[in-house]
Amino acid sequence: MFCPQCGANNADTAAVCSQCGRSLQVAVAPIPLQTTGVVLPPPGTVVPNYLVFAILATVFCCLPTGIPAIVYAAQVNNKLQVGNIAGAQADSRNAKMWCWISFGLGLAMLVGYGGLVMLGILSGAMHH
Amino acid sequence: MSGRDYFREHRLLTAGLVAAAAGVLILAVFDPATSGVFPPCPVRYLTGWYCPGCGSLRAFHQLLHGNLRAAWAMNPLTVVLLPFLAYGLAAHVLNQLHITKSPGAGSRATGLRASGLRRIRLPELFLPAMWIRALGAAIILFGIVRNIPLHPFNLLAPGAMLRF
Question: Is A37 left (phi over 0), alpha (psi -120 to 50) or beta?
Answer without folding.
Answer: left
